[in-house]
Amino acid sequence: MYTCCNCGTRFARFPRLQRFLHHVGITCEWCTKRHPVSVDGEPFGFLRHRHNGRGTYAEDQFEAWPYDTDEHPDHRDRVRYLNTRPKRADAMVDIAHWRSFLDRDEDDLSPVLAVVADETFYKYGPDMTDEQEAGFLDGTLDVYGVGILRPYAPPHRRRGQFYAAEETFTWGLIAPAGLEGIYTQQAPEPLAAHAPQL
């Protein structure tokens, strides 16, 4: 039996034994840290890492939450849980869908841009300069993927909802920190040259 150093979850070497073990109730900062997601620069929601208690067989890694200050001002820290997804970009899709549910016509087929933090990029590899490494360490630089979120077209049963068009994403783009978000018109200036045309 093992205990996860990340969140304190107990799990067994053999998957069929895991159902007999329970979460020990330890939640660390890494599990709960919020990653803000803005829409055109305005705060709208956030992503959060999640460890679902299944040890090395965990599939769901990112939770999507929108801010909901007007409708429920005193409910659950003024946020609303949406969904848990295996990919960061897919969690952003849920946030984009919630915005479209509030502000868009379901037959509006205009896509939006997504700027997603690239967590698979090795920031301290041999190709990084000393200045870039210093920027990663002090939080002034981050690595992103930029791509398009497209809505499903009628007569699809999920028409109006978004999905991440994987073929449009460009990954490994180094730019100032804090640019992750959804953009309905154009990408932020440091990433505009790498963004697909809407």
Roughly what percent helix? 10-25%
Stretches with pLDDT under 50, minimum 5 residues: none
Radius of gyration: 19 Å
SS elements, strand count: 10
Q: End-to-end distance, in Å?
A: 50 Å
One letter per element, helices H and strands E, the order comes to: EEHEEEEHEHEEE
Shape descriptor? globular
Provide a count of the helices.
3
Main-sheet strand order equals: 6-5-4-3-10-7-8-9
Average of per-residue pLDDT values: 79
Biggest β-sheet description:
8 strands, mixed
Strand content: 25-35%
Query: Structural class, from helix and strand content?
Result: alpha+beta
SSE topology:
Elements: E1 2-3, E2 10-11, H1 29-32, E3 34-39, E4 42-49, E5 62-66, E6 83-85, H2 88-103, E7 112-117, H3 130-138, E8 141-151, E9 162-176, E10 181-183
Parallel strand pairs: 3-10
Antiparallel strand pairs: 1-2, 3-4, 4-5, 5-6, 7-8, 7-10, 8-9
Would you kindly provide a brief summary of this structure?
This protein is of the alpha+beta class and 198 residues long.
